[in-house]
Design a protein that fits this description.
By secondary structure, the chain is mainly beta. It has two domains: about 140 residues, Jelly Rolls, CATH 2.60.120; about 180 residues, Jelly Rolls, CATH 2.60.120. The protein is about 5% helix and about 35% strand. The chain contains two helices and 22 strands. Strands 9, 11, 12, 14, 19, 20 and 22 form a seven-stranded antiparallel β-sheet that branches. The longest helix is centred in the N-terminal third of the chain and has 16 residues. It is globular. About 40% of the residues are buried. The N terminus and C terminus are likely disordered.
């Protein structure tokens, strides 16, 4: 008994003398967003401009937020909120980066003054985080500090680098194909790619799917990973639509969709030119906003570190894909989705898919007029 008492005392002393390193951040399996939302205080938000560094500290500030959506780290330090306003009409990609920092700060980009609207960067915003191809508007950049009630405040220099981009392809004036899932299922079908169905379904979803889609269009029905609620764990399946014939005047794909996925899970868009036998991943303009977490070894359909949609888009968003490489071919489009063994969210909802481009050329118009004349 004396030996056990002495051993326990030594272990206690070791824990005090050699505490765990504060900067070691192992992402636990299955981060869960459990905090009551809307606690972020933006009343003293500091305006920041692209390319202009600002120094900051959270000394003396209260911790209002412990968890950010898509990240399991305990952010127990006081947070500092910045606002970045980007003008229209084009879209933007920007990166928030911390330098000259002390005592382990983290940076998060939010689409609103709410910790639930974190874009879900797979690195949880440690030192640097990026969002791609977002519309003009005001975004919130929060610097918080890792750890439970840190003893020492954090300091940093924050720099935001911005790139303005004219959206390629979208919007386009001429639609060759318009699959509006408000109106019907559009002949979609499922394709297995993992250990079991997600299950994809068409109809009116239950739960927290936004009711307004792109262009302010009301949302009724969608193609979604699960009509009844969150997607299941350890499942993978693709929803397939088509066929579509790609021509020089119809080589742009526009997707209006909403996604809310754990950053260990994800979905991406793939194209098949052989009726669904083989598939090639295609990327939206500017790239996918996330990647499957590198440690997600149990992911279905996708692979660790594979580019994808994940995190929380918060609203229906528009992404554009260039199909120039498929001109002259007939393709099918697949929405490939996979989850790992724990934690699930609302999933992936498709409002519409459009394929189009510029107005048909005069030659095509003339040819079509000749064809119609034959049947008068």
């Amino acid at each position: 008994m004396r030996f056990v008492t002495v051993l326990m005392s030594l272990l206690l002393i070791a824990a005090v003398v050699f505490p765990a390193a504060a900067d070691t951040k192992e992402k636990p399996e299955g981060p869960v967003f459990q905090q009551t939302r809307g606690l972020l205080n933006c009343s003293n938000a500091i305006p920041i401009q692209c390319g202009v560094p600002v120094t900051g500290t959270n000394a003396g500030l209260t911790s209002n937020v412990l968890l950010y959506n898509g990240c399991a780290w305990n952010e127990g330090g006081g947070e500092v909120v910045y606002t970045l306003t980007l003008p229209g009409p084009n879209v933007w990609s920007f990166t928030a980066t911390l330098s000259n920092y002390t005592n382990d700060p983290d940076v998060f980009i939010l689409s609103a003054c709410d910790e639930a609207t974190n874009f879900g960067n797979p690195l949880c915003g440690h030192i640097s985080t990026t969002v791609s191809l977002v519309p003009a508007g005001t975004y919130y950049i929060v610097v918080d500090q890792y750890g439970t009630a840190p003893t020492y405040p954090a300091t940093w220099t924050l720099t935001v680098t911005c790139t303005e981009t004219t959206p390629p392809c979208c919007p386009f004036p001429h639609n060759c194909y318009f699959l509006d899932f408000n109106q019907g299922p559009n002949g979609w079908y499922s394709r297995p790619c993992g250990s079991g169905p997600v299950p994809w379904a068409w109809g009116m979803p239950v739960g927290s799917v936004p009711t307004v889609a792109c262009n302010g269009v009301p949302r009724t029905n969608v193609l979604i990973t699960n009509l009844a609620g969150n997607y299941p764990n350890s499942k993978g399946e693709a929803a397939v639509v088509g066929p579509f014939t790609i021509t020089p005047d119809c080589k742009c794909l526009e997707l209006c969709h909403y996604y809310y996925m754990e950053t260990w899970d994800g979905g991406n868009v793939r194209v098949s030119t052989d009726g669904g036998t083989t598939w090639t991943r295609i990327a939206p303009a500017g790239g996918y906003p996330g990647v499957v977490y590198s440690g997600a070894t149990s992911i279905q359909c996708l692979t660790p570190s594979e580019p994808c949609f994940n995190g929380n888009s918060t609203t229906f968003v528009r992404h554009c894909f260039d199909l120039t490489q498929y001109v002259g071919q007939t393709i099918h489009v697949g929405f490939f989705f996979g989850s790992d063994s724990s934690v699930n969210y609302r999933g992936w909802a498709i409002k519409w898919l459009k394929i189009g481009g510029a107005e048909p050329s005069p030659v095509e118009d003339g040819s079509w007029g000749t064809i119609k004349a034959l049947y008068r």
